[in-house]
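I hope you will forgive my troubling you with a question about protein structure. Here, with my thanks, is the record as I have it:
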Amino acid sequence: MEKRWLQLVIKMNKKGFLQISFAWLFAILVGAVILFLAIYLSTKLIRTEQTSIGAQTGKEIGILLNPLETSFETGKTTSLTLPVETRIYNKCNNNGIFGNQIIQISQKSFNKWTETDIDIAFSNKYIFSEKYVEGKKFYVFSKPFEFPFKVADLIYITSSLKKYCFVNPPEDIEEELLDLEQQNLLIEDCSDSKNVMVCFGDSNCNINVNYYAKYVEKNNKKMYFEGDTLMYAAIFSDSDVYECQLKRLMQRVENLALLYKDKAIFIAETGCHSNLNLMELVNIAGGFSSSEELYEMNRLVEDIKEKNELAECALW
C-alpha cells in the first residue's frame, strides 16, 4: 500500500514539475521576443534619429555658410563647432545649369560613425576641402573668385585637428595667412611631424605649390590654378573635389557671360558700346573639362577684363 502511494506522489510531482517547466519556458520565450522587439525598435529609432540629425546638421551648416557669401569680411576666419565628433563629406556634381554642392554628415554615436545616405544639395555654394573633414571644430574662410567678373565666393573648410605648415610662401601670401590668424595655418613652424607641409618651390613636401607654373601637386596629382583664390582651393582640396567644383564655376562663368552679353546689347541701344568678346568666353567655359585649360582661358579673361576697365560703359 505504501509503495503504491509513494509511486502516485512521485507521478504527481513529475507532472507538476513538467507544468512548472513549461510555464517558465513560455515566460522566457515571451520575454525574449519582447526584448528582441524592444532592442530592434530602439535601434531603428536611434538610426532614424541619427539620420534626421545628420540631415538637419547638413542644412544648418549650409545656412551658417551664407554670411560668407554676403557680408562676411574677405580674408577673415570664422569657426564652426559641433557638439559631437562629425565628418563633413564634400561632394559635387555638374548636373543642371550650375551643378550642385552636396554636403553629407556622419556623426559619432556609441563610438561608431553613423551611416546616412541623405545628401543636402546647394546650387549656389562652392566648398573646397578634402573628401571629408573630421572633428568637432572646423575653420572656415572665403575668397572671391573673379574670372573676369565676380563669379562666386569660394569657401575653404579645414579641421582644427589638421595643421598646415606653409614653407617659403611669397610675401603677399605670408601676410594674408598671418592676417587670417587661423590657428591651424602655420608659417615656417614645422616642428611637429604631423603637420601637413605646404611648400613653395620644393618637391619633397605633402603639398607642393609651383607659384610660377601655377599648379599644386598633391597625392601625385597636379591641380592648375589662376590667382590665389584657386590656389588655396587646390591646397585644401582633393583633386576630384577641386576639378568638379572648378567645372561648376565654369558653368557659372558661361551663364554670367551670357547675361553680360545681353546687357551689352541693351546698353548698345543707347549708343554705348563695350566691344567685349563674351561669346568666345561662353563657348570656352561651356566646353571646360579640366584645370589644365585655365592657362589658355586666362589669356582671354585678362583681355576681356582690361577692355571692360577701359570701356566707356563698363558692364561690371
In short: Confidence is low (pLDDT under 50) at residues 40-55. The helical segments are 2-64, 66-69, 171-180, 228-236, 239-268, 278-286, 294-310. The radius of gyration is 31 Å. The CA atoms of residues 87 and 299 lie 39 Å apart.
